Amino acid sequence: MKKIVMLLSLCALSFACNSEDPDTVNDPLNDDVNLENKVLLLKVDFETYAFEGGKELVFPEASEFTISHIYNSPGDFGDITLKYAEVDQTLFAGGIVWMGLGEMTFSESIDPASGFQTIENAVPQPAEDGFSIVNYGPEFEFQDQPNYDAIWDAVENLVAVEDYRNTNPDAKVHLFLYTPSVGIGNPADWDWFVILKN
After folding, report:
1. How many CB atoms within 10 Å of residue 46?
2. Neighbours of 4 (CB within 10 A)
3. Considering only CA atoms, which of 194, 172, 188 is closest in space to residue 53?
4. What is the pLDDT of residues 8-49, one digit of tens each?
5. Do residues 116 and 154 both lie within one domain?
6. Are residues 7 and 90 in the same domain?
7. Which range marks the domain in which residue 167 is found?
8. SS3 86
9. Shared-domain flag, residues 150 and 174
10. Residue 90 near residue 106 (C-beta atoms within 8 A)
11. Cα–Cα distance between 121 and 131 in angstroms, integer?
12. Which of 45, 46, 98, 118 would suit a FRET pair with 54, their CA atoms being 20 to 30 Å apart?
């Protein structure tokens, strides 16, 4: 009888070890979670360089990361969509209004800056050639270089930035300037998006 009880106990223990524990699935030390293909978008105010929040997106696995775009110039109303080209999925979408104000439509919301954990030591800023500007129309090709220092200063103390740079230190840091108001556009409406790939 003792042998049967012991055998049943071992079977139950084996089943428990093989079943997927939700806490293990969400454990940051779980390799399956760390292998997810993720992109981080961080929003930085164009004028003040204040960090305003961000969004982490998860995509199907891909070996490369290329940002493509679909841009409709605003005769009155236009829009911009950024795509993760290798998986053909949206990274960002927003309206652009001539002498008006468009709005971000994807993601529908971003997480507030207060929701991001910080660290004491700043994440080292990449060299200038470590940045890549997303140019999505002739009118948005930059004659002057962005203020890389000020943009990086806004996000350099985020735990998420440290994690992404440690996971993929050679990846380009993509910079995207979203200008929802054009014509007599108001730069107070504009934002930089810092885009990182893990």
Report:
1. 19
2. 8
3. 194
4. 343 343 433 343 333 323 333 334 445 799 999 999 999 999
5. yes
6. no
7. 37-197
8. coil
9. yes
10. yes
11. 21
12. 98
From the DSSP assignment, how many helices (H) and strands (E) are in the chain? 5, 11
Sequence letter at residue 189? D
Assigned token pair, 143: 């004659």
92, 180 in Cβ contact below 8 A?
A: no
Beta strand residue intervals within 99-183, DSSP E: 104-106, 111-112, 131-133, 173-178, 181-182
**Whole-prediction pTM value?**
0.80
For residue 68, give the 3-state DSSP assignment: strand
Tell me the two tokens of residue 150: 């000020």
3-state secondary structure 166-182: HHCCCCCEEEEEECCEE
Does residue 1 share a domain with residue 74?
Answer: no
User: Which two structure tokens, joined as six digits, stand for 17?
Assistant: 């070890």
Residues 176 and 138 in one domain: yes
Cα torsion through 111, 112, 113, 119, rounded to 10: -50
**Single-letter residue type at 81:** T
99 sits in the region (left: phi over 0; alpha: psi -120 to 50; else beta) called left
Domain identity same for 23 and 114: no
Residues 89 and 53 in one domain: yes
Q: 129 φ, ψ to 5°?
A: -75, 0
Question: Are 12 and 69 in a shared domain?
Answer: no
- Give the chain's length: 198
Per residue in 124-137, pLDDT (tens digit) is 999 999 999 998 76
Question: Residue 128, SS3?
Answer: helix
